[in-house]
Amino acid sequence: MPGSLEPLDVGVQIPYHFLCPISLELMRDPVTVCTGQTYDRTTIELWVAKGNTTCPLTRSPLTDIALIPNHTLRRLIQDWCVANRSFGVGRIPTPKQPAPQTMVRNLLNQASSMSAPFGLRLSALRRLRGLARDSDKNRSVIAANNAIEILFAIVFSDVGSDSNSSELSHESLAVLSLFSLSEPKCMFVAANSDRVGYLVNLLFHSSIDVRVNSATVIEIVVAGIRSPDLREQISDAPKIFEGIVGILSFPLAYRRALKTGIKALFALCLVKQHRHKAVTAGAVEALIDRLAEFEKSDSERALASVELLCRIPSGCAAFAAHSLTVSLLVKIILKISERATEYAAGALLSLCSTSELTQREAIAAGVLTKLLLLVQSDCTERAKRKAQMLLKLLRDSWPEDTLANSDDFACSDVVPF
């Protein structure tokens, strides 16, 4: 047992040949390289990814980077884990192997062949979607075989025609939505108004799956381009906000619609020139009505979108007019995460800066106690700064009993009045 490793229990030690020679940890997916040495798949892949071209143990050249699964050793490790489970050793599950290159190439060839029967092409695309969903390794294998170009060709084959309901196009879009795209690939979509228009049209398709897949690709494209002009061009596409808000407002039973909708809305709201279109499309009502239903990361995006929309007059007015806005934002402070608190405080600052009625609503909802706690907390400096500005704004509206009790929070040492 190497000195750097602690045994799991005083009564068990890991057999040395079960340890990866690189990480000195128990191998979960042992693979053998061309030199005959065995390593854990993750560590040897990382070794090669860093530019190393030799075997870590023998220093012999790795003339072939193929990794052969060592099934015998993996079964021995699994049996050892089961035999020592009383010492706290958990059984290592059998790893899923990446899809074979030859199979992936055959499926892509079938999917892209114009002479192949429709059923064969559709079946190939569905199998590719299943493989891509299974694992990151499968997605890497698929992407390495020119899949993105092939999928683009099928997805946009209907651009400019009246047939926007092609099953092949929609299935290809479903596969494409599972991949990240390089900036050149995002530019390929963003720079062509017909392609953008096609994706926007699909946001109103009768199938919610097609709508969500289209929204996913739109979000990936917007997030993947650095050109402000192209981002603005996409966000200016007719009815794009209506389509995204419609997905965001879909019944809660379809969780993916909620997650995809807020990611796409946030990406589009980063373009300040067209935020008013989000307000007109009903984004304010959708955000407030769903704010309590988001998961943590999605709540942060939703609150960031709220703060962005509060920076424009129409957005600020729409949020102020919604009866639940202020109470929800106050409730969120110090509850979900530091970022969520920062965004909620920023939105409240914008709302209270434009309306005395909103100030009174915030005070009635208990915002003063939340803000006084916030400036004393370990939250972000930006969140504290927003809280300080909001406290200063509300100072003239503080109830007398709150002023009397504020000394308990040492507010005078934190808030620069």
Summarize the structure in short.
This protein is mostly helical. The chain is built from 23 helices and three strands.
Q: How is this fold's topology laid out?
A:
Blueprint: E1 30-32, E2 38-40, H1 41-49, E3 68-69, H2 71-83, H3 101-112, H4 118-134, H5 136-143, H6 147-155, H7 167-176, H8 183-190, H9 193-202, H10 208-224, H11 228-235, H12 240-248, H13 255-269, H14 275-280, H15 283-290, H16 296-309, H17 313-321, H18 325-332, H19 338-354, H20 356-364, H21 367-376, H22 381-394, H23 400-405
Antiparallel strand pairs: 1-2, 1-3
Q: How would you sum up this structure, described in words?
A:
This is U-box domain-containing protein. Pathway: Protein modification; protein ubiquitination. Its EC number is 2.3.2.27. With 417 residues, this protein is mainly alpha-helical. It is globular and about 75 Å long. 38% of the residues are buried. Strands 2-1-3 form a three-stranded antiparallel sheet. Among the domains are: 16-87, 2-Layer Sandwich (Herpes Virus-1), CATH 3.30.40.10; 323-417. The longest helix has 17 residues, at 118-134. Strand 1 and strand 2 form a beta hairpin. Helices cover 59% and strands 2% of the residues.
